[in-house]
Amino acid sequence: MSPEGPASLLAADPSDPAGFHRRLAHWNHRRLAPSTPRPAWRDDLRRDAEMMLVEGDFIERARAEAAPWLADLPTTADAFVAWFEALKGSGPGEADPLFPWLAETASMEEMRWFLLQEVAGEAGFEDLVAMAQVKMPTRPKLELARNYWDEMGRGSEAGMHGPMLDRLAAALDLNPRIEETVWPSLALGNTLVAFSTQRRYAYHALGALGAVELTAPWRAAHVAEGLKRLGVGVERKYFALHATLDIAHSEAWNEEVLRPLAAERPECVRALAEGAIMRLMAGARCFDAYRAHLWGAAPLRRSA
User: Which Pfam families does UniProt cross-reference here (predicted)?
Assistant: First the structure.
């Protein structure tokens, strides 16, 4: 039996979210990995079709949970961009006390555990952008291309963001495994992969990835500060870079991706907003789980 198990057994069990998201994460790992043709390809496709139904049910439940945040969603492009930008500092999971604690107090082992969860749940921003940009209008597509090129180090291997994170993981001897990752971290990755691989959620992907660019600098700056305090050298560059670069990325994303889409395709505004809120809600659940582990306290309950 494959690690994700039969799709018929994968329907979300409220009593076992960890098992559900581990199996979904194993499936995502398998289906996104480059491979070669094999005789059982028909069985693989049937399996994938069943899994996509399970994935879709998961995303639709998350959409329903996000709905209260969208009660006053504006419809004009200017108002929508202002609403989106206001999520910085006020959206789900924003200003979480975990991050000042990481900067000022966390031990090396506590920081390593936090980073292990983050690395395990990392879905690969550059790949998500590449998949999300397919068939998008010219202006947003060009900005997504610029963003992708930055993620790729503008053609220099040393500047690629993904390998930067890998080098930090190697320096701190982090060896992420799905089975050792808290389920909200897996759920976050599963959400972003669903958005970027399923075209019905293409605008959700752009909203979610835009929310990452919008809100990451504050958190990245605190992590970079904590790593510096703990004596981590050049390997902390991944977080130090995102503390500054993502500010410019966010400004460009809002103006070149969100604004033209909202103006020219107003029917996609709710999907853009849902994607952003769902990404931030998933992050908030991660922070709750991290604090519960690191501080020994019950996770805070967050309503939508």
Answer: Haem_oxygenas_2 (PF14518)
Number of H helices and E strands in the chain, helices first, is 13, 0
Mean pLDDT of the chain: 93
**3-46: pLDDT as tens digits:** 655 555 556 566 899 999 999 999 999 999 999 999 999 999 99
What does the alpha-carbon distance between residue 116 and residue 148 come to, in Å, rounded to a whole number?
25
For 94, residues 6+ apart whose C-beta sits below 8 A from its C-beta are 87, 88, 215, 218, 280
Taken in order 199, 204, 207, 209, the sign of the CA dihedral is: negative
Answer whether 190's CB lies under 8 Å from 58's CB. yes
Within 8 A by CB and 6+ apart from 287, the residues are 93, 96, 98
Give the angle subtended at the CA of 275 by the CAs of 206 and 128, to the nearest 5°.
45
Return all residues near 273 (Cβ < 8 A) that are at least 6 apart.
70, 73, 80, 83, 84, 207
Handedness of CA 277, 281, 283, 284 (dihedral sign): positive
The mean pLDDT of 203-214, rounded to a whole number, is 98
Query: Would you say 11 and 54 are in contact if contact means Cβ atoms under 8 Å apart?
Result: yes
Residues in the chain: 304
pLDDT digits 0-9 by tens, 140-174: 999 999 999 999 999 999 999 999 999 999 999 99
Domain spanning 76-295 has what CATH number?
1.20.910.10
CA distances from residue 120 to 57, 91, 142, 180, 222 in whole angstroms, order as listed: 23, 24, 30, 9, 20
Contact assessment for residue 208 and residue 220, using Cβ atoms and an 8 Å cutoff:
no
DSSP class of residue 250?
H
* Total-model pTM: 0.93
